[in-house]
Write a structure and sequence with these properties.
This is MFHA1 protein. InterPro entries: P-loop_NTPase. It comes from Erithacus rubecula. The protein is mainly alpha-helical and 218 residues long. Helices cover 53% and strands 7% of the residues. The chain has a two-stranded parallel ribbon with strand order 1-3. Strands 2-4 form a two-stranded parallel sheet. Strands 5-6 form a two-stranded antiparallel ribbon. The radius of gyration is 22 Å and the shape is globular.
Length: 218
Amino acid sequence: MRVPNSVVLPVGTHVDCCQEQEIAEKTNDIMGRITAMLAERKSNLAHFIDNLEGSEEPKIYMDQWEKLKEMESCTLTILNLVTVNCTDHCDIKKLEATILKHVRKEELFPEVVRVLPPIYRQVEAAIVDIAQSEEVAGHGMMDLQYLVSKLSQREHLGSLGRELLQDILRYLHRVGLVVWYEEIKPLESTVFLQPTFLITMFKLLVRHRLVQQLESIP
């Protein structure tokens, strides 16, 4: 909800535990809940904005007002829910085909049809090669300046400037090849060449009953 122009594909799993009629009922219920949630969010944002604008000294709350207006302008596209039996390989392939079908739609993802300069592909290939090399730790975290120096040693990339590299990294971040939180001050100089490491880390830290599990350790 906080990401501009984001696209969400809801996926319902465990359909093998449901009856056919139950699947349709649950699908309608989930999509209905999502629609209601979005409507409530829109209403709440409008309410907060009105409160700030109607305050006695609205200039004091200008920063909050700007953040709320920015959130209000974020469009969110919800695709139709896909039901999946995770024990059925055919269903997994069906989900994969559905995802590919959606990401190839220009109206959803304009980046798909963007014509990139050859250097983008060269940098992408070089980063993949660096990420897979033995010198890079499993977590794939690399200092931005060190990455610049490693890339500059590659053929055809000797004249690669930092500004151009940052543009390329922003593109690779958008398509999911790397993760670079340039807008977060403590992380702006770190590039994550292995995004799956972050997923693994979050799964360990953000999970059900984590506090109870930690407290149970002698």
